[in-house]
């Protein structure tokens, strides 16, 4: 069964066994097992995930501006929560994929182009995670500030 690029529920690479490859390869490290097209697919999927994280951050920043205003609805709150959960999953999937890519690229005698591609992807993921962390912190602070005084101390 072929993996779709859109999967963020952890059913993709990285969740099938400790080495992250399809389970039939579970008995030996992946580095010797992955073929170039599979490697590029993993690069593309992870790149798409980084894009998704950044899109989610942009959406969270928009929602953040509405918190505490007349546009602050239950729907907005639910959307914020759902986006945060999705982003957390996507980050987990991407981090696993980067680890897997690192092992494969390190264990391979292939061109340094893949190493450059990996470094760029690592930096992009790292930047995206930092942006996400910053917006998450702002959302938490603003949500806490908006709680009625009596609830503040209990919701630490």
From TrEMBL:
Superkingdom of this entry's organism?
Eukaryota
Question: SMART domains given for it?
Answer: SynN (SM00503)
Q: Which InterPro entries match?
A: SNARE, Syntaxin_N
Q: Which GO terms describe its biological process?
A: vesicle-mediated transport
> Known SUPFAM superfamilies for this protein?
t-snare proteins
Region span, Disordered: 1-29
Cellular component (GO) terms are:
membrane
One matching Pfam family: Syntaxin_2
Domain (Syntaxin N-terminal) ranges: 31-144
Q: What is this protein called?
A: TSNA1 protein
Q: Which species is listed as the source?
A: Nicator chloris
């Amino acid at each position: 069964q072929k993996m779709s690029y859109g999967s963020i529920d952890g059913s993709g690479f990285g969740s099938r066994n400790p080495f992250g490859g399809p389970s039939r390869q579970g008995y030996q490290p992946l580095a010797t097992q992955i073929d170039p097209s599979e490697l590029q697919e993993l690069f593309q999927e992870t790149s798409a995930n980084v894009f998704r994280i950044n899109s989610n951050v942009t959406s969270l920043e928009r929602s953040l501006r509405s918190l505490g205003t007349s546009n602050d609805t239950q729907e907005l709150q639910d959307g914020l929560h759902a986006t945060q959960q999705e982003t957390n999953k996507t980050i987990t999937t991407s981090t696993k994929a980067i680890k897997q890519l690192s092992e494969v690229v390190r264990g391979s005698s292939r061109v340094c182009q893949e190493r450059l591609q990996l470094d760029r992807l690592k930096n992009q993921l790292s930047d995206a995670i930092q942006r996400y962390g910053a917006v998450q912190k702002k959302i938490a602070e603003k949500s806490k500030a908006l709680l009625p005084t009596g609830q503040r101390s209990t919701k630490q």
